[in-house]
Amino acid sequence: MPRGHGKTIAQNKKAGHDYFIEETFEAGIVLQGTEIKAIRAGRVNLKESFARIKDGEVYIHNMHISHYEQGNIYNHEPTRSRKLLLHRKQINQLIGATQQKGYALVPLKMYIKNGVAKVLIGLGRGKKKYDKREDLKRKQVNREIDRAIKESLK
């Protein structure tokens, strides 16, 4: 199965608006307790999350996995830092890339592939305000063109 395919649980739509995504990496995630059950129930939010490299390991911060309703007193903490599982070669590549100014690791999508939770991490370069405005104009023009084509076909 290609990278980024599987049953999509959560998507970070804001990432495409705020960053130019140059490369993507598929990473496993270290979970504990009832977190996988909450993920399968779709109780995940990637909006404010980000990834960082610490001591040669990649961690995802601020990813919110809600409490599992049928859980007990040993339920997980919703926004704890979670370790991402990547190959050493990929981590070294990310270390080199994120040391450049303006680059960040952004979680793009969480999905379940072959029964295992995966996170699609993007190496993103931050967009400036004028880049964002240009993208919005391009989207609007494309929408108008599609609308005109649709009207002419009627």
TrEMBL record:
Give the chief site where it resides.
cytoplasm
What's in the keyword line of the UniProt record?
Answer: Cytoplasm, RNA-binding
A Pfam family annotated for this UniProt entry: SmpB
Give the top-rank taxon of the lineage listed in the UniProt record for this protein.
Bacteria
Question: Sorted alphabetically, which CDD domains does this protein's record hold?
Answer: SmpB
Q: Matching Gene3D superfamilies, A to Z? A: 2.40.280.10
Q: Does the keyword Cytoplasm apply?
A: yes
Localization, UniProt? Cytoplasm
Question: What is the recorded function of this protein according to its Swiss-Prot or TrEMBL entry?
Answer: Required for rescue of stalled ribosomes mediated by trans-translation. Binds to transfer-messenger RNA (tmRNA), required for stable association of tmRNA with ribosomes. tmRNA and SmpB together mimic tRNA shape, replacing the anticodon stem-loop with SmpB. tmRNA is encoded by the ssrA gene; the 2 termini fold to resemble tRNA(Ala) and it encodes a 'tag peptide', a short internal open reading frame. During trans-translation Ala-aminoacylated tmRNA acts like a tRNA, entering the A-site of stalled ribosomes, displacing the stalled mRNA.
Q: Which NCBIfam families match?
A: PRK05422.1 (NF003843), smpB (TIGR00086)
Protein family according to the UniProt entry: Belongs to the SmpB family.
What is the protein's given name? SsrA-binding protein
